[in-house]
Design goal:
With about 350 residues, this protein is an alpha/beta fold. It is built from 14 helices and twelve strands. Helix 1 packs across helix 11 and helix 2 runs parallel beside helix 11.
Length: about 350
């Protein structure tokens, strides 16, 4: 079975794993108060061109989303997200468990628009009964989205401008940021300049685990470590996070990981395009969502593990192919041969 169902099917990139081995017997303080976390945080500030940013290392994406959102919202506030946002669909109500509502808006391509942000904020303020309803208190978006689509710099600028007109912060989920950087014109300095808080994903981009939160809005910085601890995301052996991010973000490795995975995914995309089968969306990243006849899906699943993404109609199935740093050329070659033979 050749596996394409997600981008964390293998362990860590060899350079990351070697860095962990090399530092394994070094004694360090706990909870991220170590030399490696300090060096990794400084490297992130330099890469983001944000010398005043606060940087924190958390264990996983759901913990990160929950911690950031809960720390930023007041009790009567909710977070704006598309209906396909990770916090809305794939986190078992984690945000709601903190007492905050996810305020969802419709989407066709996974992306949130500035117009939607403007509309939901304006409608709330113009509602005579607004104090009886959850107040929009944050904007959440992911880059790339759950459908593999990406924002342009212009789109991100418009979203942030709309949110900031209503004095609410923008939070960018960067669990797959390596692939977003490889497939869009948005850079880390852009995110630091425009968003109030974002994170650099490690778990889905070559680390064993870990996400690096970057906070540029001073109002969100206060007591953030308290929130990390309260949400169960403050790792005792915090140096393990610092070691991994120092390795990931040195010598262009993070960019290479994203570019490599995207290149492999686009090979899959072309093979299906050549067969004439449609896609749910036009994704330029490491996630490709193809719609195939049900008999074709049954043949594919005999040799390849993918993610089932619903049935657009009774006779077709949408499936996701996801690549990563460890996707092998020979596995892509085998898949392309099988696609051509279908």
């Amino acid at each position: 079975m050749i596996r394409f169902e997600c981008d964390y099917i293998t362990g860590a990139h060899p350079k990351v794993l070697q860095a962990l081995v090399d530092s394994n017997l070094e004694p360090h303080p706990g909870y991220g108060e170590d030399e490696y976390c300090a060096r990794a945080a400084q490297l992130i500030r330099e890469l983001c061109q944000a010398p005043e940013a606060d940087v924190h290392f958390l264990v996983g994406g759901t913990q990160t989303n929950t911690t950031v959102i809960a720390s930023a919202l007041r009790p009567h506030q909710g977070v704006i997200s598309t209906e396909l946002g990770h916090i809305a669909l794939h986190e078992t109500g984690a945000i709601e468990s903190t007492g905050h509502k996810v305020l969802t808006v419709p989407t066709q391509d996974g992306k949130l628009t500035a117009q939607q942000v403007e509309q939901i904020c304006r409608e709330h303020l113009e509602d005579e009964a607004m104090e009886h309803k959850v107040q929009p208190g944050m904007v959440y978006l992911s880059h790339p989205t759950e459908l593999g689509t990406v924002y342009t710099r212009t789109e991100l600028e418009a979203i942030c401008a709309a949110a900031h007109r209503y004095h609410i912060p923008v939070f960018v989920d960067g669990a797959r940021l390596a692939y977003g950087l490889a497939a869009s014109d948005i850079t880390m300095p852009d995110l630091a300049r425009l968003a109030d808080v974002f994170y650099i994903g490690g778990t889905k981009s070559g680390a064993l685990f870990g996400e690096a939160v970057v906070i540029t809005n001073d109002s969100l910085k206060r007591d953030f470590r308290y929130f990390i601890k309260q949400r169960g995301a403050l790792l005792a052996k915090g140096r393990l996070l610092g070691v991994q991010f120092l390795a990931l973000l040195s010598d262009g490795l993070y960019e290479q990981i994203g570019q490599q995975a995207v290149a492999q995914a686009l090979r899959i995309k072309k093979a299906f395009q050549d067969k004439g089968w449609p896609f749910l969306v036009d994704s330029p990243t490491n996630q490709q969502f193809v719609v195939v006849p049900d008999p074709v899906y049954e043949r594919i699943r005999q040799s390849y593990s993918t993610e089932h993404n619903g049935k657009p109609d009774p006779d077709h199935t949408a499936i996701r192919f996801c690549t990563t740093w460890s996707t092998r050329d020979e596995d892509i070659d085998a898949l392309i041969r099988d696609i051509q033979a279908l």
